[in-house]
């Protein structure tokens, strides 16, 4: 029995697919052999297999249409510990023109998420009470709290950094 496709879920699916195909097109334009992983494959959206025999890479694509202060990508608990020299994230901004893709190693993403989570949890709510543990985080180019590994604009050095995949 299939689950009805709500508008919100359909929009999310289209946004995700648009980001994955954008990343694939950027890789193909650079003559990089890549393919989509099977749907719902754990930890990977795109497989990169260099034709020169170098090590394969795995890419997880995160896409957003957000703008302004809300700009960012939703991440889960698992991303705090999902680290491998073969794993990279491509954070896609579909709302920018041209559309931006930030290529960031998984170790950097995990470090930033850990520091951001710690800073966020240490900051009291507006009413002064403590924050409760949560399973979702936002990865942002500019955080509202000080993050040592992610000062304002920290993602800029990863913009279109495709050479990291070689």
Point out poorly predicted stretches. none
Oligomer: single chain
Report how far the terminal alpha carbons are from each other. Answer: 43 Å
Task: Kindly identify the CATH topology.
Answer: Trna Endonuclease, Chain: A, domain 1
Tell me the number of strands.
7
Biggest sheet architecture? 5 strands, mixed
Name the structural class: alpha+beta
Across the major sheet, the strand order is 1-2-3-5-6
Mean pLDDT: 88
Q: Provide the domain count.
A: 1
Give the C-level CATH assignment: Alpha Beta
* Proper CATH architecture: 3-Layer(aba) Sandwich
Helix content: 10-25%
Q: Please trace the helix and strand order, writing H or E for each element.
A: HEEEEEEHE
Amount of beta strand? 15-25%
Continuous helix count: 2
Q: Tell me, what's the shape? A: globular
User: What integer value in Å does the Rg equal?
Assistant: 17 Å
List the helices and strands and how they pair.
Blueprint: H1 7-29, E1 34-36, E2 46-48, E3 57-64, E4 73-76, E5 87-93, E6 100-105, H2 106-122, E7 136-139
Parallel strand pairs: 3-5
Antiparallel strand pairs: 1-2, 2-3, 4-7, 5-6
């Amino acid at each position: 029995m299939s689950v009805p496709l709500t508008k919100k879920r359909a929009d999310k699916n289209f946004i995700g697919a648009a980001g994955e195909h954008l990343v694939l097109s950027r890789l193909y334009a650079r003559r990089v052999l890549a393919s989509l992983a099977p749907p719902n494959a754990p930890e990977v959206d795109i497989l990169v297999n260099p034709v020169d025999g170098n090590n394969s890479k795995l890419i997880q694509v995160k896409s957003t249409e957000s703008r302004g202060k809300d700009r960012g990508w939703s991440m889960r608990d698992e991303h705090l510990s999902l680290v491998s020299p073969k794993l990279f994230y491509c954070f896609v901004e579909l709302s920018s023109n041209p559309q931006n893709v930030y290529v960031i190693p998984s170790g950097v993403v995990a470090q930033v998420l850990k520091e951001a989570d710690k800073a966020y949890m240490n900051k009291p709510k507006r009413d002064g009470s403590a924050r409760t543990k949560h399973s979702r985080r936002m990865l942002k180019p500019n955080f509202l709290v000080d993050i040592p590994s992610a000062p304002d604009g920290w993602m800029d050095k990863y913009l279109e950094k495709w050479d990291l995949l070689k």
